[in-house]
Design a protein that fits this description.
By secondary structure, the chain is α+β, with helices and mostly antiparallel strands. It has two domains: 34-171, Immunoglobulin-like (Sandwich); 178-420, Aminopeptidase. The chain contains nine helices and 19 strands. The chain is globular. It binds zinc ion (ZN). The active site is at residue 392. Residues 174-416 form the Peptidase M14 domain.
Length: 422
């Protein structure tokens, strides 16, 4: 008996110290055409099942539900399709459901061909406050063997939902549409040192909003963007806290704003977000492949803005950051042997962030292939000399940690940049 206990103890220790499987990052980015392509529009309305008194709806901004059939009295199968193909496995879904009487339904989410289920269901009663579906009410089918990526995903899932006369919202991640982003922007821009402006229009004529934090004539500049890819909500949440920290009332932030102005485009792809796209803009294109050719209005607007600012102020961008989400937290940096306007900044920054967050070991994947500049990071670095990176948050990273990491990251970045500027 004692031997067995010791054995189990050692087994436990081995498990504790075993090298955890780690996300190896994306393979090198291939150039893809970014000329406008057709996208499939989603039929919008209510899907009513009168016999059972149950209604599903995709009639709201940010929704995605492409079809639904009733299998039996309590089971419904939903089809989720992308805006066009080929496309990454980031199948967004969001719908509402309600019933005449309190009841329980099984909702099976299915996808086409290589599409698989990725985002763990979030539930809400008001579209604002979200919680995770109870895991005992969630079942995955034909799950892949791999630890990360599409090969790790199930082919379909079943959710057991309690529904009634009140609307239940079901979504792949918390809903943050252009309306939510505008509200956040409105709120922040009540501060006297923040102005909001429009730097362009999306393909479907939505405004591309920008926040200027600090003096708009300042010569020392930072560029912050997020949400080129609609479902990447955790990256967006990190961006929010990062920006709020730079806009805060701390002494550090005040000093920082005296020396540097931060420009923020929080929602790069408003059409994609509001249409519930998996990845592309309304031109059917992955915007983060369009920073060399600038075929799309969203990327072109940021390019024109940044180049206009450099001309106007005769200054430069020292730092550029693009927030995304992926399988796990990761930083795609520029190889430290390539020097921009503040050499060593990103390396020092990430090592100080690591030191500050106990138990956190950042996953850093540098690249020295900066041309062509298909992605925003390369454009920021090559055309502006901005020390640049992609800041990726895992789909399932706990939201408290997302905030904490973003706050600490912004604080340390401000300290380091202040030390380095004359
Ligand atoms: Zn992305």
């Amino acid at each position: 008996m004692k031997k067995k206990v010791l054995f189990l103890y050692l087994l436990g220790l081995a498990a504790t110290y075993a090298q955890e499987q780690r996300f190896q990052g994306q393979p090198p980015i291939a150039a893809v055409p970014t000329k406008t392509r057709a996208v499939q529009k989603q039929w919008k309305g209510n899907f009513k099942f009168a016999r059972n008194g149950i209604t599903f709806s995709n009639d709201f901004v940010g929704s995605r539900l492409n079809g639904i059939v009733q299998n039996n009295d309590s089971t419904y199968t939903v089809l989720i399709t992308p805006e066009n193909t080929p496309i990454n496995t980031s199948p967004w879904y969001a719908f509402k459901v309600w019933a005449n009487n309190r009841t329980q339904v099984n909702v099976v989410l299915t996808y086409q061909e290589s599409g698989k289920h990725r985002y763990f269901p979030k539930l809400s009663k008001d579209g604002v406050n979200w919680s995770l579906l109870d895991s005992t009410r969630y079942k995955e089918y034909d799950k892949g063997e791999r630890a990360f990526g599409p090969g790790s995903l199930p082919v379909k899932v079943n959710m057991k939902l309690e529904i009634g006369t009140d609307t239940l919202w079901v979504s792949g991640q918390e809903l943050h549409t252009s309306h939510h982003v505008s509200r956040w922007v409105e709120d922040l821009s009540t501060k006297p040192f923040i102005t909001k402006k429009k730097i362009g229009k999306s393909r479907e004529n939505r405004d591309l909003g920008l926040l200027a934090i600090g003096d708009e004539n300042a010569r020392n500049m930072l560029m912050v963007i997020s949400r080129q890819h609609p479902p990447e909500v955790t990256g967006y949440l990190a961006m929010k806290t990062f920006v709020e920290t730079i806009a805060s009332d701390t002494k550090l932030a005040k000093n920082f704003r005296k020396k540097f102005t931060t420009y923020v485009v929080p929602l790069m792809n408003p059409d994609g977000v509001d249409n519930g796209h998996w990845r592309h803009n309304a031109g059917g294109v992955d915007l983060n492949r369009d920073w060399a050719n600038f075929n799309q209005p969203e990327t072109r607007s940021v390019k024109n803005f940044m180049e206009g600012k450099v001309k106007q102020t005769k200054g430069k961008f020292y730092f550029g950051i693009d927030f995304h989400s992926t399988w796990d937290d990761i930083y795609y940096t520029v190889d430290s042997k390539l020097e921009g306007n503040m050499p060593g900044l990103v390396t020092d920054w990430l090592s100080e962030v690591k030191a500050e967050l106990e138990g956190y070991d950042p996953n850093i994947r540098p690249s020295d292939k900066m041309r062509p500049t298909n992605v925003s990071r390369n454009y920021f670095f090559v055309e502006h000399g901005a020390e640049a990176l992609v800041f990726e948050i895992g789909d399932n990273t706990p939201r408290d940690f997302v905030k904490k990491k973003a706050r600490v990251s912004a604080q340390i970045l401000m300290q380091l940049m202040l030390k380095r500027i004359k």
